[in-house]
Amino acid sequence: MTYHGRPVTKDEIIAALWSEDDVTRAESGPKFNLSRARRPLSQDSIAYEGGKYRLDPHSDFEFDVTRFGDLLRAADRLSEDAALKPRYIEQAVNLYSGDFLPEFYSELCEE
Question: How far is CA 22 from CA 14, 27, 32, 71, in A?
């Protein structure tokens, strides 16, 4: 989902969610998590085509990271004295609601 609609391979999913040392969990993980992701969505919301997974581009998913970027770009287009600039920035900051995928551990995300 974080690939903004770009199709991704199983290996890309594994690399994003599991460390290299956790191969067994990684190999079984994508199918399990794919099933879990499809439950609250429609079965067709995650497509598998040509060896890659992607979200249905015709769906109306919204991503906070996309909205965050849109708000900051809108703020950047305004002059420094524009009254709306602080509002756009505040709306962007208010989108944060917690850590991304806190149930997944990755050494890549350590501080």
Answer: 10, 9, 15, 38
pTM over cut 0.70: no
Highest mean pLDDT among 26-35, 53-62, 66-75: 66-75
Phi-psi label, residue 55: left if phi above 0, alpha if psi -120 to 50, beta otherwise: beta
Q: How many domains does the chain have?
A: 2
User: 75 and 42 in one domain?
Assistant: no
Q: Classify residue 103: in a domain, yes or no.
A: no
**Do 53 and 69 belong to one domain?**
no
Domain that holds residue 89: 64-94
Burial class (CB in 10 A: 0-12, 13-18, 19+), 18: buried
Helices (H) and strands (E) in the chain, counts: 4, 3
